[in-house]
Amino acid sequence: MKTLKNIPFFVLALFLYSCTTTNNFNLQKKYAASELQEDYSLLRNILEAKHPSLYWYTPKDSMDFYFDQYYNSIKDSMTEQQFGWKVIAPLTDKIHCGHTSFSRSNAYNNWATGKRQPSFPLFLKVWNDTMAVTGNLDRKDSVLKRGTIITSINGIKNADLINKMFGFMTEDGYANNVNYNRLSNNFAYYHRNIMGISKTYRVTYLDDKGTEQLINIPAWGLTVDTTKKAKDTIAIRQPAPPKQTRQQRLQEIRSLAVDTTNNTAIITINSFSSGNLRSFYRQTFAYIKNTGIDNVVLDIRSNGGGRIRLSTLLTKYVTRTNFKVADTSFAITKSLSPYGKYIKGSFVNNLGLFFLTKKKKDGLYHFGHWERKINKPKAENNYTGNLYILINGNTFSAASLFSNALKGQPGVVLLGEETGGGWHGNNGILIPDIILPNTHIKVRLPLFRLVQHNHAPKDGRGIPPDIYLGTNYDALLKGIDYKMKFVMDMIKAKGIRN
């Protein structure tokens, strides 16, 4: 009883300790080279023992070379930031697995929440070897406005800069379209972490006449102390966004809009992880059937994946044929031992490996359900009308499984850009975090390799659209969703012809 009485005090003390630890997080703390080498060696051992596709795109001798190269680069102490971005990020890129990525420690993430860090001040849309301004943190800047084409930063030409940054960003095979989108969504974040902070950036750009010009622009978020040296404040706290209602949160994950003029439903699904999707599917496709809608636009351009079962369920509502998810689905291990204590949720993942898999003659542990299960179209409210699916580099993981299952079916058109999720297959299903004991940096560890049914050869590409719609510069200038407009114009033209 005495112990029970002390529990509330213990919990309170733990809470206060956690708060203190978070508030006192030291960004400049350095870890000894021996500690970093210990973390690195542990990571290598786990990846070599448990990752199902470590050598899928990079041969073992090459992967061994990279493992040794980055280990040998740890010659001195480093901060968590330096270790993560100079060592772990380029290492994980060499695996060419979009689900094997690193993230910072929980202590860092808690500290950084609500803070905007010093950075390159421009927001950029990045495609091919082109970068165009979409926003500027310096509101007084009248030169680098929306649409301005940037040709170099700090003397590095666009193509070289993009190629260098891609060396720190993971992808399935060679499907780098996802990384173009990542840079477009948060160029400053990646540039800061990969290239570092400059007090002033030398930027070349094209003026209104197409002539290359040079301008020097200051970093956003730096202050200058009395010795005139740049000082990294990294403590600009942003105002908290207004609290969202439950309905608003759901709308961000999935939504339905109806264009009655063109008899078209526009369904947006940004995740297969949450959002009460089962009831949303059921209600949405019942409505479509009851109202006799002829055209459906399904937008999964921001869908990074999630639960395969929710992706498969959506496929059942719109497929015209039976389909399978995978030809092959396997893990190379039955247990996370002896590394369980370094892997988050190891107990639950061990249960999954034990109960969901069976060892076959090839020595691998197969998840037979996805290999055997033949899925049929929904008996009720199955939609077989005109289906237009919008895809791009952010269409990843379970969203790429959905795209593969529908590609080539009658009445289905994929439009946009190549998916970030591999067409041949990818890794996932169970994806716990490895937590390195010294730095507490996290690395995702997919436990299964999944080769898609009706997959393409293993060329490292994503699923291609039937109609390619790349970046449209005029639409970028005007802030128009060019791809959605293209689809709606297709539907209008078809209605006129009919």
What is the CA-CA span between the terminal residues?
80 Å
| Overall helicity | 25-40%
Number of domains: 3
Task: Please identify the structural class as seen in this structure.
Answer: alpha+beta
Q: Which stretches are low in confidence, meaning pLDDT under 50 for 5 or more residues running?
A: 1-22, 224-233
Largest sheet: 6 strands, antiparallel
Please state roughly what percent of the residues sit in beta strands, choosing from under 5%, 5-15%, 15-25%, 25-35%, 35-45% or over 45%: 15-25%
Describe what this molecule looks like in 3D.
This protein is of the alpha+beta class and 498 residues long. Helices cover 37% and strands 21% of the residues. The protein has 15 helices and 26 strands. The strands form seven sheets. Strands 5, 6, 7, 8, 9 and 10 form a six-stranded antiparallel beta sheet that branches. Strands 14-15-16-20-21-26 form a six-stranded mixed beta sheet, with helices on both faces. The longest helix is centred in the first third of the chain and has 22 residues, at 2-23. The chain is globular and about 70 Å long. Mean pLDDT is 91; it is low at 1-22 and 224-233.
